[in-house]
Amino acid sequence: MERIEGTSGVKLIECVNPVKQKWRIRWDVQEKEDGSATYMEEEFIGKPSPEAIKSVVIGWYNQQIEETILSGFVYEDMPVWLSTENQFNYKVVYDLAVQTKGATLPVVFKFGTDEQVQYRIFGTLEELEDFYKKAMTYVQDTLTDGWEKKDAFNPELYRVE
């Protein structure tokens, strides 16, 4: 599976080598103003079934959603790694701070990257709440965007008679 640069109007499914029975499917076609396009492409030996096509395309979208959640959030110009474990830890710290009216603060979180670690001290409930709400909104918006893309997948566009 790879991103290809080609022309707009590319077929979403085609047999590219009838002798060897090589088929290719394409998705996430992004057309450019100059008439070119980029798209994801996967090659199959034999005509892929509708289930195989859907599995590849939806699997790719799931991977994109996960990667975007993990490494796409930035808070105060600092990248924040939003693994499931980190999301859980942020929730626990936030919930405890709310329950104790901030008595468990300050708390320090490690942000940034492996190459450039940044520490952020949250000294007030308002600061922590701002971070937590923005992080969870980012996760939810990313999931919603991904669901819309997956829901827009139309297997009928890959039908070949």
Number of helices: 3
Distance between the first and last residues' Cα: 24 Å
Overall 3D form: elongated
How large is the share of residues in beta strands?
Answer: 25-35%
What does this 3D model show about the protein?
By secondary structure, the chain is α+β, with helices and mostly antiparallel strands. The chain has two domains: 1-48, no CATH class; 70-146, no CATH class. 40% of the residues lie in helices and 30% in strands. It has helices spanning 50-71, 84-99, 125-151, and strands spanning 2-7, 13-17, 22-31, 36-45, 73-75, 78-80, 107-112, 117-122. The strands form three sheets. Strands 1-4-3-2 form a four-stranded antiparallel β-sheet, with helices on one face. A two-stranded antiparallel sheet has the order 5-6. A two-stranded antiparallel ribbon has the order 7-8. A hairpin with a 4-residue loop joins strand 7 (107-112) and strand 8. Helix 1 runs antiparallel to helix 3 and helix 2 runs antiparallel to helix 3 (125-151). The longest helix is centred in the C-terminal third of the chain and has 27 residues, at 125-151. The mean pLDDT is 96.
